């Protein structure tokens, strides 16, 4: 018997990176996982990789897409035991460079989208359910050009404290995972191909453990928060950062 045997989970942004790694861990522990994301081809491929998974294409910034996701969960008839609100976007600009479009793009997905991802799940969440928000160590520092992204992740940390208090009487636990410098496919998308190795070395140099983390290492922490092993953990923020923000 796996730790999540018979459970139903939702992972937003589940087609790659941390979301995919978490969905794979959930399924390996016995859960059926609903994954969502904007790329239908990538979602279908991920669902086949995961095994016990249902792919529902959608954008968490679109309330209608969230409704379709949760209708699919409702149709399964077993409610929802685990919600990993992982989907996010990141574009970077200094204070001087920040535009209304930049701000709206980041906050519409990372904050507004996560808010309604959780709110719309409420009627489906079973007693004892676990809600996990994906924040970031960037919420704690002042790295140049990360201001809007960092503020959006700090907002999630704040929301988690409030939601944990509001939902505790239903037996629902809300917690946060804050990854540090993680090697995911996003790196190849944001850094020029001939500079990827240099970027990895630069990122690794900032981490006390001397390397970037993996999506699977974050997924292990998410699994802990999703399972009964964290039954006395509420409103917490677990750093998976190789010590980056601990010294």
Quick overview of this protein structure:
The protein has 247 residues and is α/β, with parallel strands linked by helices.
Layout of secondary structure:
Elements: E1 8-12, H1 17-28, E2 32-37, H2 40-50, E3 53-57, H3 63-76, E4 80-85, H4 100-119, E5 125-134, H5 147-167, E6 173-179, E7 182-183, H6 186-190, H7 196-205, E8 213-214, H8 215-226, E9 237-240
Helix pairs in contact: 1-8, 4-5
Second CATH tier, the architecture: 3-Layer(aba) Sandwich
Spans of 5+ residues with little confidence (pLDDT < 50)?
Answer: none
- Would you state the CATH class? Alpha Beta
The count of domains is: 1
Could you give the count of β-strands?
9
**Global shape:** globular
Average pLDDT works out at 96
Please state the CA-atom Rg, rounded to the nearest Å.
17 Å
* Main beta sheet: 7 strands, parallel
Task: Indicate the CATH topology.
Answer: Rossmann fold
Number of helices: 8
- What is the N-to-C succession of helices and strands? EHEHEHEHEHEEHHEHE
How are the strands of the largest sheet arranged? 3-2-1-4-5-6-9
CATH homolog superfamily: NAD(P)-binding Rossmann-like Domain
Kindly name the structural category.
alpha/beta
Which strand-content bin applies to the residues?
15-25%
Helix content: 40-55%
